[in-house]
Amino acid sequence: MDVQEVYYSEELPQVEGKTNFLFVLSNEHTEDMYVCSVIQVDLDSLSYKICTFDPATVSQNTSLNDSYKSGGAGKVADEMSLMLGAEIDYYIDQTVDNYKKMFSAMGDINYTVLSDIRYKDSSIYGFNVKIKAGDQKIDGDAASKLMRYYMAQEDYQSVSDILLSSLSQQINEENYDNRENLFSKFIDCAATNITVRSYTDSEDGMLVLSRETTGVNVYSVSPEYSEKSVTAQSLADIRGYFSK
């Protein structure tokens, strides 16, 4: 008698909707933004979309960084909502140290560095980064330094690529199973308007996105500037990514 193996596929919940997040990497001493990115989690198309902006971007005659210094990430989220014509639902503001702690809890990621990098920022809160081109396994310290380096080069695409790599790899089955502990750590490591209620409401979406069989797509768009303002054409393109 032949013995046949039977495989059972997990039945995942039906999910839908789009949620926009503002992610800020900040300096806790100077209250400046290093990174300012808008991220959409799109459950309709099962995708992540990201646009990274220069903190010096002018909106409503004020730079995003000045808005941050006067009103925190919540005020920047309001400014971005007006700029994009789409509501930013949640903001996540992490200092470099807290970003590294959260990253460590979520796990290192694989990331392809396109060219050798050797860079020294000699400012008071500066950093050194030295990394070879090629496939690398990076931790939170390396990720934060690479993002700050790319921002200094006005290479917003590469910053978005790191964030997309993090989302794609760190939202996984193991972290989903450990989600309660990770959410507790996240609350300790971020200034955010994400509540326990909103976290609970998102569990079905996290379950679907965490499964290897889901096949999440990733997209990014980068702003084009005239002086410190995003050009009209570029802004129109970006709005198409984050509309709901």
Describe this protein's structure:
The model is unreliable at about 1-10 (pLDDT under 50). This protein is about 40% helix and about 25% strand. The longest helix has 21 residues, at about 65-85. The protein is α+β, with helices and mostly antiparallel strands. It is built from nine helices and 14 strands. The protein has helices at about 65-85, 95-105, 140-150, 155-170, 175, 180-190, 195-200, 205-210, 230-240; strands spanning about 20-25, 30-40, 45-55, 60, 60-65, 90-95, 110-115, 115-120, 130, 135-140, 190, 215-220, 225, 230. Helix 2 (about 95-105) crosses helix 3 (about 140-150), helix 2 (about 95-105) packs antiparallel against helix 6 (about 180-190) and helix 3 runs antiparallel to helix 4 (about 155-170).
Outline the fold blueprint:
Elements: E1 18-27, E2 32-42, E3 47-53, E4 58-59, E5 62-63, H1 64-84, E6 90-95, H2 96-106, E7 109-113, E8 117-120, E9 128-131, E10 134-138, H3 140-152, H4 156-170, H5 173-177, H6 179-188, E11 191-192, H7 196-201, H8 203-210, E12 217-220, E13 225-226, E14 229-230, H9 232-242
Parallel strand pairs: 1-6, 3-12
Antiparallel strand pairs: 1-2, 2-3, 4-5, 6-11, 7-10, 8-9, 13-14
Helix pairs in contact: 2-3, 2-6, 3-4
